[in-house]
From TrEMBL:
One of its GO terms (biological process) is nucleoside metabolic process. This is Purine nucleoside phosphorylase. GO terms for molecular function: purine-nucleoside phosphorylase activity. Its EC number is 2.4.2.1. One of its GO terms (cellular component) is cytoplasm.
Length: 271
């Protein structure tokens, strides 16, 4: 891992004049609008970066964006990776390790998710304050490199409380419907059955999706504070469940995305 990581980081540094980002950003499905707020320094296609996995989804750009946002140096993944694409969790989270090696001090993650909480409606936002991992393994499975993090990292507070509080305050000031809750990570890519939605609610989930948790686990393994936010693009309420298409999910994400961008950009400005 260390040799592969060093090869990738050296490649990026040579092409960026040793650009040192302070903040890493992972942009979820349909949520790439934040990139337009970044004062672009340069970008790299995933396909040109040694050892970097490539997004297989046509609606994910697959670019690593470097620049400034609200005066802070950032590196943003425009297009994330998912377990259902066929990658291992170690491959999916490799970009987070690269970001850490480049110098990030905070990680901001966004995703599109289905609401499990009947008080959280389609188009609302949800700041993640905890998660439940129902993916088949941990990205930390295998031999641990103590230079990257401890064998048994603590996960009692995976999401940064102070950043959560600031984000909710920004949302209130801006009149944005924004909740906080528990995100459940599943394998995907299929959506859930009525019985599965019911189960996820029973075990304490407020939203469900197929990403985020692996990246958060690896970030916390390396001691990076994390903030994560979901755009709720559909409603998994068993009693009134109706079919939903990818087109509908993307359309809802596009409508709600400016609200998420406003919260993230203002939150980054306060760091």
């Amino acid at each position: 891992m260390f040799q592969i990581l060093r090869e990738t980081v050296d490649y990026i540094k040579k092409r960026s004049n040793d650009f040192q980002p302070e903040i890493g950003i992972v942009l979820g499905t349909g949520l790439g609008g934040l990139v337009n707020e970044i004062e672009l320094e340069f970008s790299l296609m995933y396909s040109n970066i040694p050892n970097f996995p490539i997004s297989t989804l046509e609606f994910h750009s697959g670019k690593l964006i470097f620049g400034k946002l609200k005066g802070k140096r950032v590196v943003a993944m425009q297009g994330r990776l998912h377990y259902y694409e066929g990658y291992s969790l170690q491959q999916i989270t490799f970009p987070i390790r690269v970001m850490k090696a480049l110098g990030i001090q905070y990680l901001f993650v966004s995703n599109a998710a289905g609401s499990l909480n009947s008080d959280f409606k389609k188009g609302d936002l949800m700041v993640i304050n905890d998660h439940i991992n129902l993916q088949p393994e941990s990205p930390l499975r295998g031999i641990n490199d103590p230079d990257l993090g401890p064998r048994f990292p603590d996960m009692s507070e995976p999401y940064h409380k102070e950043l959560i509080g600031k984000a909710l305050a920004i949302a209130a000031e801006e009149g944005i419907r924004c909740h906080q809750g528990v995100y459940v990570a599943v394998t995907g890519p299929n959506l859930e059955t009525k019985a599965e939605y019911k189960y996820l609610r029973i075990i304490g989930g407020d939203a469900v999706g197929t990403s985020t948790v692996p990246e958060v686990i690896v970030a916390r393994h390396m001691g990076i504070p994390v903030f994560a936010i979901s755009v709720l693009t559909d409603e998994g309420f068993p009693e009134v469940l109706s079919p939903v298409s990818l087109e509908e999910i993307l359309a809802t994400a596009r409508i709600a995305e400016p609200k998420m961008t406003k919260i993230l950009s203002q939150l980054i400005a306060q760091l």
